[in-house]
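Researcher: Good morning. I'm working through a list of sequences from a screen, and I'd like to move beyond sequence-only analysis. For each chain I'm collecting a predicted structure so we can compare shapes side by side. This is the next one on the list. No need for commentary yet; just the structure.
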Amino acid sequence: MTDTDLKTALKHLIVETLRLEEVKPEAIQDEAPLFSPTEGLGLDSLSALELLSAIEFKFGVRFESDGTAKEHFKSVSTLAAFLLPQLKN
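Model: Good morning. Structure tokens for this chain:
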């Protein structure tokens, strides 16, 4: 899977998992903050848990339970950067 394919898949997963009917996956910018209250998608902590579970299930990966997962959820780009090396194994 390429970086671009993964980002596209993540955008579709975000929209489907969080039922963001008013958001088109292709409208989500790679670098846009996912959890900023003033820009990007403005997701909340409940959305983070739903999304984390969906990503773990879809891609067969695990996030550490030490709180570092938060760093990977800054944007679609940071999620892809975390996931891509694991998917190549």
